[in-house]
Amino acid sequence: VPPGWSYDHDMELARFLYDYSMKDRGNCTKDYIRGVEVSSEMDDCSAAHLTDNQTTTWESNGPQGQHWVRLNMKKGTIVKKLWLVLDGQSHSYIPRRVAVYGGELDRLYHLRTVLISENSYREVCILRDMKTHLPVLEIRILECREHGQNVRLQGIKIKSSWEWDLILNADIFQPSRLVRYPLLEGVDNDVLYRRAVLIQRFVQLMDSVLHYLISPCEYSSGSFNALR
């Protein structure tokens, strides 16, 4: 530990790293997704329509109950909210019950099953408040309204934060960037760099074991308070 360094210094350095990592992050669905795959699609109703922010739609073309949308997420994205944008004009094409799975492609686990209200005609939140990055999210359409065979979606929307994935170097600790962090002002750049590397390594290690400590399906404020 550097001479004169305290827990408050670590907290301020962590805030600096977070603020620095959040600069120039994207704010639309395409910024978080590497690619979209679907179980099937009709001509002119392709998977690309799910993220084009237009009034176009994706429509499946396959057996009832076997439709899915797979989102390959960019590294570091942590989903805070995931919405389906419904095509309210086609009642029997609207999903009634969906399940969301996440994780590595060969080890997807169940996150949530949602029964979509009959009063929902536009946007429906089907997942929220994930705590870690999930490389793949898969939305499985279990049932459509009125026993419809195929599903039609106008889009997918995502609100996400990012894990820290900084390429650290001493140059990011310029005095002009530290004016809002008084405890860090005057500290040698190399000291800040070495301490930042330590914090980042701790975050990565903590993320790698967190799912063993708390199951993703049991996240709650109570369980996190116990962990803390």
UniProtKB/TrEMBL annotation:
GO terms for molecular function: ubiquitin-protein transferase activity. Residues 1-185 form the DOC domain. It holds the Pfam family ANAPC10. InterPro entries: APC_su10/DOC_dom (IPR004939), Galactose-bd-like_sf (IPR008979), HECTD3 (IPR042469). This is E3 ubiquitin-protein ligase HECTD3. The lineage of its organism: Eukaryota, Metazoa, Chordata, Craniata, Vertebrata.
